[in-house]
Amino acid sequence: EDQVTQSPEALRLQEGESSSLNCSYTVSGLRGLFWYRQDPGKGPEFLFTLYSAGEEKEKERLKATLTKKESFLHITAPKPEDSATYLCAVQTFGADSNYQLIWGAGTKLIIKP
Amino acid sequence: EAQVTQNPRYLITVTGKKLTVTCSQNMNHEYMSWYRQDPGLGLRQIYYSMNVEVTDKGDVPEGYKVSRKEKRNFPLILESPSPNQTSLYFCASSRRRESIGNEQFFGPGTRLTVL
Fold this sequence. Notes:
The structure holds two protein chains of two kinds. Chain A is mostly beta strands. Helix content of chain A is 0%, strand content 58%. Chain B is 0% helix and 47% strand. Chain B is globular, with a radius of gyration of 13 Å. Chain B has strands spanning 4-7, 10-13, 19-25, 31-37, 44-51, 54-57, 65-66, 76-78, 87-94, 105-106, 110-114. Chain B starts with a strand and ends with a strand. Chain A binds chain B through residues 4, 9, 31-32, 34, 41-46, 49, 87, 89, 91, 98-106, and chain B through 4, 40-45, 58-59, 90, 92, 97-98, 100-109.
């Protein structure tokens, strides 16, 4: 069964303390892996797309990387405004599920000033 | 401003009382869908629509109905809500089904409580 697991469930960091969030996946064929940010009271907002192992994308203090089994979202010198829940989603190949997304439960990131 | 709007944002109702959550997008997107988000679980798709008058079931369609009479609107209907439908609901849209990974816009969410 296709599955996406994010860890940890929650992460508390001090401002400036770098760390990584993990998204591991077990799918029959990867079409793409996506990272989203979700702020309280809002819908998810798209951050990155990764298509193949070895690929990396960066945006400000965030960098997403991809291997054959997992993706990492690295946060360098985070600020309080980076506090949010980060969601990972995987799009798979398949006769009926070519365009469906499988979502992880998210990692809630809290950055303390 | 490009956006997806949902109404109401918060709703408390009782078991069996029919309700409708509206969703509208102003981006002329073909593809729209409804998700529910529950603690500890990933977003789960309820229904989706690839265009006007074309709708199909997602992963958790039981107890829900949808319609797509106009391109911009995609209401979610709970004909007889039950407590297990208490959840946070999101409407989303994208240009095409193929681009739901990186071009999907979400509404602000509707928090529904069924007593």
